[in-house]
Amino acid sequence: MKDENFVYKANKFLLIHSHTQAPVDVDTHIHNCYELYYYISGDLTYHVEGQAYKLNKNDLIITNSRELHRIVFDSKAPYERKFIQFKPEYISSFQSEDYNMLSFIQNRKLGQFNKINGKDVISNKIDKLWDQISQHARDKSPESNIMIKAIFVQMLIEINKIFASNVNVPIDHLEYDEVIIDILKYIKENLHKKITLDLLENEFHINKYYICHLFKKNTGFTIIEYITYKRIMKAEELLILGRPIIEIASEVGFGDYTNFYKSFKKIIGVSPKKYMNR
Question: Model's pTM, two decimal places?
């Protein structure tokens, strides 16, 4: 079977179902939306914010717009998955003061409780709801868009029920080296400083090349890409607060504005000024 993709797009909503015969690793990235990732087949480890999830059929991975993630394939087995990416505004008309359908996405600690086991997906009929959405997306009838949104709301409610029970939502902790836990904490608390491998070597008294090896093995990210993403995410928060762009570049640890500008545009997709105006 050749690589295949089915794509459905609506305003602030994207559905994709894809088959890949020879998968390659997916580099560290972040979305400006929320994502529900439905795993069907393959051989991979899904990394989210330093957490590693080994997936089984029907497992569901949930990430928000603040979580770095990547996929590492453990073999070249054919790969099938489907995912939904959406923005909160897509279901805003269904929200109420008494019930927030997105609380399970918005209120988790980063990299925590990203996975729902396949058995819970099946028992809560999330798989059936997903199939109904896919069917309406393929039908393209006049009522398709309305039906898709209505069924998607039901899916979010079922997912919320799983998280609310907080019983069958496992978290697969990595067997971290203690030094990696300390390094993650150090990075979080010192984004405003110049963080180099030499500095980490002196701070933790471990060879910098071995630190790089441990960090990539434990988190799935290189130290440099992790620090860069975290700095840009912090810069995004400061822009929203209305801080001057030039000050932000320095405050999040960039040595000069040019590097900050290039990194911000690469990760966010627009320049800092356009982001602030938008």
Answer: 0.74
Query: pLDDT digits over 193-210, tens only?
Result: 889 999 999 999 999 999
Q: Report how far residue 249's alpha carbon sits from residue 81's, in angstroms, rounded to the nearest whole number.
A: 38
Q: In sequence order, what are the residues at sequence separation of 6 or more whose Cβ sits closer than 8 angstroms to the Cβ of residue 182? A: 204
Position 205: which residue type?
H
Reduce the DSSP state of residue 38 to 3 states and report it: strand
**Helix axes 223-240 and 178-189, enclosed angle (nearest 10):** 30
Q: How many residues does the chain have?
A: 278
Q: In the 3-class helix/strand/coil scheme, how is 207-227 assigned residue by residue?
A: CHHHHHHHHHHHHCCCHHHHH
What sign does the dihedral 214-221-207-179 (CA atoms) show?
Answer: negative
Q: How many CB atoms within 10 Å of residue 270?
A: 13
In a 3-state reduction of DSSP, which class is residue 161? helix
Distance, in Å, from the CA atom of 118 to the CA atom of 110, rounded to the nearest integer, reads: 21
Sign of the Cα pseudo-torsion (7, 58, 131, 76, in order): positive
Report which DSSP code applies to 90.
G
- 174-190 pLDDT, tens digit per residue, is 444 678 878 888 998 89
Q: How many angstroms separate the CA atoms of 43 and 78, rounded?
A: 8
Tokens 């995410």 appear where?
233
Phi then psi for residue 125, to 5 deg, are 60, 25
Spatial contact of 151 and 136, defined as CB atoms under 8 Å apart: yes
